Q: What sequence folds into this?
């Protein structure tokens, strides 16, 4: 359980899908480097391979960090996808589970709100004027931390 006397929160969860993207990306990039008779094949295979490698670098892990007044959420190590939620905007937090329909990555959930998930089904649902389904393998600790932050901001 979360220790409310401990300073801050930071947790990184690694995702297995990046390995698949890296593997397919290297294979496709390798095919693009073969001497094809059509230059277009070389171009699109190399481009596709490079894009898959870039996508793998964007979704290798999901990091959640306390930034004193807000929660910072980003995929990485190439942090192109980032979200910040201010603690004063949070109304409630609960531990939940995503479904197969919710999937992984960052997108709108069929159940409403945004999904930010790298792997697994456990999540923390954050209500903040909208809803964010934040996938994590540390759901109890994250929920405890966020509940303490909400109480702290409501009592201030």
A:
């Amino acid at each position: 359980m979360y220790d409310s006397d401990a300073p801050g929160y930071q947790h990184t969860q690694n995702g297995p899908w990046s390995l698949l993207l890296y593997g397919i990306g290297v294979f496709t990039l390798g095919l693009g480097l073969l001497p094809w008779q059509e230059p277009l094949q070389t171009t699109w295979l190399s481009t596709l391979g490079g894009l898959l490698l870039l996508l793998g670098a964007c979704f290798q892990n999901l990091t959640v960090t306390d930034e004193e007044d807000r929660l910072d959420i980003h995929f990485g190590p190439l942090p192109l996808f980032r979200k910040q939620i201010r603690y004063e905007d949070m109304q409630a937090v609960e531990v939940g589970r995503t479904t197969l329909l919710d999937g992984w990555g960052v997108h709108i959930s069929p159940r409403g709100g945004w999904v930010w998930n790298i792997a697994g089904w456990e999540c923390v649902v954050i209500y903040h004027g909208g809803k964010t389904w934040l996938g994590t393998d540390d759901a109890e600790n994250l929920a405890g931390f966020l509940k303490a932050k909400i109480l702290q901001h409501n009592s201030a």
Notes: The longest strand covers residues 70-76. The chain has two domains: 10-14+61-155, 17-58.
